[in-house]
Records
---
Amino acid sequence: MSVPEECAKKLREISPAYEARAREEYIPIIRPESLKLLLDAAKRTKCYRILEIGTAIGFSTAWLATETGAIVDTVEKDEKRLERARAFWQEIGIENRINAYLGDADELVPMLAKENTYDFVFIDAAKSRYSDYLDAVYPSLAKSGIVFADNVYYLGLVKGDVYPPHKHRTIVTNMRAFLKKISDKEKFDTTIYDTEDGTAVCVKL
Ligand SMILES: C[S@@+](CC[C@H](N)C(=O)[O-])C[C@H]1O[C@@H](n2cnc3c(N)ncnc32)[C@H](O)[C@@H]1O
């Protein structure tokens, strides 16, 4: 079901200020080039249901819901951020297209994956958990469905096999495990874009 044009118009109108405010407040939301890749990828496949892991203040959620017309299930552990997200979606008029879940993705993602089939999964929460999120969602991802993961090069530390600094070791090690899984040619047709912090688009085979 497509989203009414007045909602899309409202999002285009209020999005720039909302995005600028998030950056001023250091709330990590998707960067412009990655957003473009996200929406291109989401529109490449017919999306009925999307799972977003990491809502923050609902910026990418709003774009996904509006541009695809899909129902979006989204997961966030920070209550204040989720409150802002809900107000943003309400202002646009798309709140009935989005199911927001407050809590830890480690628990919510396996639960949602058991209950639903997803055409598109946007992984954007804890960087050390991407590999686990992938394992949890894989069985519920439709054939030709897409996993889109942002920040897969994590500050440029993941590329190559350089031994990471102690502070980032877990994230880098786990992100490399994630990259190895999405490189499995029997399971995914994966493209990794060098854009910004590295973006992976994986089509389930
Ligand atoms: C990069 S932001 C999401 C940005 C959003 N997708 C966008 O582009 O507008 C990541 C969010 O994931 C949330 N997060 C991190 N770990 C989480 C967890 N274990 N469970 C649920 N949410 C988590 C953080 O609170 C943060 O708001």
---
Amino acid sequence: MNQYLQEAEYAADDVVISMRNVSKQYSKEAPAVTHADFTVREGEFVFITGETGSGKSTLMKMIVHELTPSAGQINVLGYDLNHIRHGKIPKFRRNLGIVFQDFRLLKDRNVYENVAFAQRIIQVPGAQIQKNVLNALDMVGMADKYRRQVTQLSGGEQQRVALARALVNKPLILLADEPTGNLDAETAWGVMQLIDRVNRDYGMTVVVVTHDRGIVERMNKRVITMKQGEIISDTADSAGEDFYPDDTMPLDYQDVDADWNDDYEQ
Ligand SMILES: Nc1ncnc2c1ncn2[C@@H]1O[C@H](COP(=O)(O)OP(=O)(O)OP(=O)(O)O)[C@@H](O)[C@H]1O
Ligand SMILES: [Mg+2]
């Protein structure tokens, strides 16, 4: 790619994630990620796929600043993650909704408390928490089970609660590492449809790691494929300017806020 164009692309206002020549080496063995170079724009839905050990989770952990790269630059939502000050990390993470394969719910609390916990961490005023939590649970179809202990839920239900918890703080980016890895095909498809809906309805940027080729093929989104630490293909590179179907164009976040539940300062 022409160097000038490449610079322009990285500098574009609507780029929410950019990796430039990023590598991660855990030890003297082969690097887990090598020369990763891509951008994600506001409102995009991106799958990251590839065989086991290809570096997908390592890439995701660098995006959320759980890991720092051995080389290269990462910028997420305007934060230069190579130079972010320790004290700024919580504020940075508030913009991210994270979903894990194994749900990671608090097993000694009920559905409501699991989602409310995310709001308490960012000190949302108590009066707003109830409305926000019930809204988020409603989005994932779990509002009627808000008092249930999470240990009494099916895997698919638990993942929907985890999704509500990731969404309740209205993140700008939803990052999910194998969110359907522990679910049967039908339940997995339901969870993926919910993720697709938040992307379409709220313009939320979504990055999903999955092994599941069936889901990737059925969803028809941008796909970044990794192999032995390298990005070996990215459908955005070949799709050109017309990649986005009209109905997946990013929404203006002002409209999104108005549509969603109560506003509050984060
Ligand atoms: N904490 C770690 N210390 C050392 N090596 C690691 C560590 N985490 C991952 N690796 C290695 O880095 C490589 C990439 O791992 P990563 O977890 O990113 O792969 P993945 O694509 O997410 O795989 P999977 O599909 O199995 O989750 C693998 O070779 C793995 O063994
Ligand atoms: Mg992984």
---
Amino acid sequence: MQMAVGKQAEDLVMNVNGDGNVSSIDARKILRTAAGLEEIP
Ligand SMILES: [Ca+2]
């Protein structure tokens, strides 16, 4: 809930798949990207 109000900038950074919200899918994608398994388009 805090992310929805006070962390908009961080929210956009973490929304790597561009669906408008940050979820475990984004978190997983970030981890995979960091590990070199996947690229952010
Ligand atoms: Ca997302």
---
Amino acid sequence: MKLKIADPGDLEDGQAKSFRIVLKGRYVNGFLIRFQGTLFAYQNKCRHLPISLDYDDARFFDSEKRYLVCQTHGALYEPEGGLCIDGPCRGESLYAIALETNESGVYVETEGEGEI
Ligand code: FES
């Protein structure tokens, strides 16, 4: 099933919002961002430890809104593609979540009841 996570114009550049879906029988936390006009979504999980990037406050960008950052250790990820360019997970990428966008909203696939 599809979960609507945003309206098409919801986020401005450098903004983010969290959501939760069910994948392979488990809840997975994700986040949606807009960067240079484009929407991206990733699982909210650092690639070096299975902890969230934010402190449950939807703060994913660094202060310049150029990179996504692990708030605990400072690892930096590229917003477009999720590649870690600095930190213990350098060279690995966040797990992307496919988006479907049309004039009625931005949707992600979930196997069960999701939430935003
Ligand atoms: S958990 Fe990986 S850099 Fe923070």
